[in-house]
Design goal:
Layout lengths: L1 H5 L18 H10 L4 H8 L2 H15 L15 E5 L8 H5 L4 E5 H8 L3 E3 L5 E3 L11 H5 L21 H11 L43
Antiparallel strand pairs: 1-2, 3-4
Length: 218
């Protein structure tokens, strides 16, 4: 009992600090959607990964109108929040900002996190093996991969919720994505984190055939 009473509990982050003012996760998600620039302030109210991830997902669900950005699936229970800059490398603002995320179904989230599919800088779907040379592919495999290559991604109606250029650049560099002929999307007039110029990584020639096997690791 003495160990419990003497423990410095005030030094432990309270993941429900926001509730003291009557806010809910839904309220904080709405704040992120209404103004992505508040992402660091929202993170300061949570600071713990579990609740933060839940709020981040709720914000992306609203921003993407409850649809996977790659295939359009709208079964809410199958939709997940994918970070462009992973949580361990992200700043507090980036951990919560909708502009550091993409709403994806569970299948495309897994493919996205393994560098097999992405959204190009002109908001089109890019698959690493568009001609199916790394097969064999079943009919279902093709529906969720090769047939989507070059299709328009389903982006948020509000440009403020589009992926930030620096977040995209981090994702592209991480998985060695580069593109030929894609025109980068215009930068938002309102900076999300800082006014960083559009990165050069987004405009280099396309090199997609870089993996020996398109299958996910066990």
């Amino acid at each position: 009992m003495e160990q419990v009473t003497s423990f410095p509990w005030d030094e432990i982050a309270n993941p429900f600090l926001y509730a003291a003012s009557g806010d809910t996760e839904e309220d904080l998600a709405e704040r992120l959607v209404a103004n992505p620039l508040q992402s660091e302030d929202v993170y300061a109210l949570v600071r713990v990964r579990g609740p933060a991830q839940s709020i981040f997902r709720k914000a992306l669900l609203r921003a993407y109108d409850y649809r996977c950005a790659i295939c359009g699936l709208s079964f809410q229970d199958a939709l997940e929040a994918a970070h462009l800059i992973p949580w361990p490398q992200a700043t507090p603002a980036q951990r919560m900002s909708p502009t550091n995320g993409v709403l994806l179904c569970s299948i495309h989230h897994r493919l996205f996190d393994h560098g097999m599919i992405t959204i190009g800088p002109n908001w089109t779907v890019r698959y690493f093996d568009p001609r199916g040379r790394e097969g064999p592919y079943s009919a279902i495999d093709e529906q969720v991969s090769t047939t989507l290559h070059g299709k328009p991604a389903i982006m948020p109606a509000d440009p403020r919720h589009h992926p930030a250029p620096e977040a995209l650049a981090h994702h592209y560099k991480r998985f060695e994505w580069s593109f030929d002929g894609d025109v980068p999307p215009p930068l938002s007039s309102t900076p999300v984190w800082s006014p960083i110029p559009h990165p050069k990584e987004i405009g280099r020639e396309e090199t997609l055939f870089r993996r020996a096997d398109h299958r996910l690791p066990a």
